[in-house]
């Protein structure tokens, strides 16, 4: 069985392999790799089976993008699109991958700001992508 990673094409690094630079611009720790601000997912924990348990997306060393927790079977348990400390949208799922809760908790304009920073498609006022 393979893990269903959020944005699987993105680089992932374990937080201990990165350099913590103190407080970030938006919130939390700023992470660097090889003398440069890190862009990709910072993995904070693994399940005993080796699957990622918890990760956060970063752009230029800053908290920006998806914060994701995974069930032990590799399916997403919780995901929240973050702009620093602000949550934009969140979703919760059972261990079969069925959504149990979620929705927008902030504006679609803020969603589009995060989308532009992270390379995701933006959405229109109705929630449709502009691809």
Radius of gyration: 15 Å
Number of E strands: 10
Number of domains: 1
The structural class is mainly beta
Ends apart, CA distance between termini? 31 Å
How many helix segments?
1
Provide the succession of SSEs: EEEEEEEEEEH
Strand content: over 45%
Order of the strands making up the biggest sheet:
1-5-6-7-8-9-10
For the sheet with most strands, the description reads:
7 strands, mixed
Residue-averaged pLDDT, rounded? 94
Protein name: Antitoxin YwqK
Describe what this molecule looks like in 3D.
By secondary structure, the protein is mainly β. It has one domain (12-118). Helices cover 8% and strands 47% of the residues. It contains 1 helix and 10 strands, in the order ββββββββββα. The protein has one helix at residues 108-118, and strands at residues 12-14, 19-23, 29-33, 36-37, 40-46, 52-59, 62-70, 76-83, 86-93, 99-104. It has a 7-stranded mixed β-sheet, covered by helices on one side. A 3-stranded antiparallel β-sheet has the order 2-3-4, with no helix packed on it. Strand 2 (19-23) and strand 3 form a beta hairpin. The mean pLDDT is 94.
List the defining traits of the structure above.
mainly beta; single chain; three-stranded antiparallel β-sheet; 131 residues; seven-stranded mixed β-sheet; Antitoxin YwqK; 1 helix; globular
Summarize the topology:
Elements: E1 12-14, E2 19-23, E3 29-33, E4 36-37, E5 40-46, E6 52-59, E7 62-70, E8 76-83, E9 86-93, E10 99-104, H1 108-118
Parallel strand pairs: 1-5
Antiparallel strand pairs: 2-3, 3-4, 5-6, 6-7, 7-8, 8-9, 9-10
